[in-house]
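Notes to self after the call with IL:
- keep both proteins in one doc
- input above output, always
- annotate only the second one for now

Protein 1:
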Amino acid sequence: MSQTHGAIPMQMIREMIAAGYIESADPTAIQPASIDLTLTDEAYRMRGSYLPRKGETMRDIIARGALYPHALERPLEQNGIYLVRLKESLRLPPGISATASNKSSSGRINLRGRLLADGIPRFDDVPANYNGQLWIELIPKSFPIRLHPGDHINQLRFFHGDSRLHPFELRLAYDRYGLLRHTDGSRIEPHVDVLNRGVTMTVDLTSQETIGWRAKTTAWGVLDTAKYDHDPLEFFEPVFKPKSDELVLHPEEFYILATKERIVVPPTFALEMAAYDSSKGEFRSHFAGFFDPGWGWREQEAERGTIGVLEVEAYSHDFVLRDGQPICLMVYERLIAAPEQLYGTDLKSHYTAQQGPRLAKWFKTP
């Protein structure tokens, strides 16, 4: 069954490319409910992070704030701010808007990627009727990173109207599909601590000896996205199960942690993890934030669900995280129609069957 309003699935994204709404797109970069955006070789080292004013193009911003052109064969410096043109451009029709987010792999190496568009004074948001180029602001926060033209750092989703589930729709989906599950596959019963503006998940600090990873303040090298055999211990240090069931998050440190529960994204839904929910504490719990239709989905009821892995950063002061504490809010969206392919079933991924705080695809298995 199709919906009038909702997120746009992959088969309709292909039709948007054919209609000229998305130009210079790579058809192989289409995911179940998104499209990966592509870096070009046009890049600039910026003196700061900019948002354009209305009517101001990104090339106006470059003329004002670029320090020098940057060749992508040279690494991006830690905490440097870079602006890179994306291969794709948009000619959106009335009623169709778009939202961008980091891909999971770039989020797990603490590479902040924010979409920018001509005359749009906000990040990661493209309104209906937009006609123009797309750019990405890149900031490697933990260590230097060497990127390459053709890399996919962020992804774009398209919407017709409001795709978020209303509370009753969310409760129906929760009861029908068992959206949240214990590690043994059994359903978690709904209650106010679980269902409140979305589905709440909690942090796992006890089930494994290595409960997470912390980025090193001084890495031993440069992470090159053309290589998939980096030694994780050159860039991260393991976080072992604490004796007190507590983990102190320090400001300016980057952690990769996992959830206790397994989450399910049925075929006609997508999922976004709220980056910051003040009710959960003074920390940010995700920098990627999007789960395609099919995440954790299995035909067999008992096999459904996959844990979530989070990129976590405290704000201005130390924050004590305790085992089982709420850590993220999962917001479900309806799709206009089920996609032709599902994540994890038809389209495999490095993260499909993750059972703990898995590092990005560029690292050897520790």
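Protein 2 (the one to annotate):
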Amino acid sequence: MTVFEATKDFLCERCGCHPDDVELAATFDALNVADFERESLALLLSEAFEIEVPSDELFAFETLEDLVGYIEDRF
């Protein structure tokens, strides 16, 4: 499973996002992802890909591409 696929699954299953809305260019705000959901997503991705995402950086990400790229660059 890719980082994007894991992110999309989380957002659709746990945050109620519509699959068509979840694309790399989508912003967390546009998807109505709350801060605690971002933290849960970061924890899931950190465990799955063995990468730590510091909270200060997590909240600096505006789009899914920002987060996915960050993890892929370190994976």
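Annotation: The chain has a mean pLDDT of 94. The chain has one domain: 3-74.
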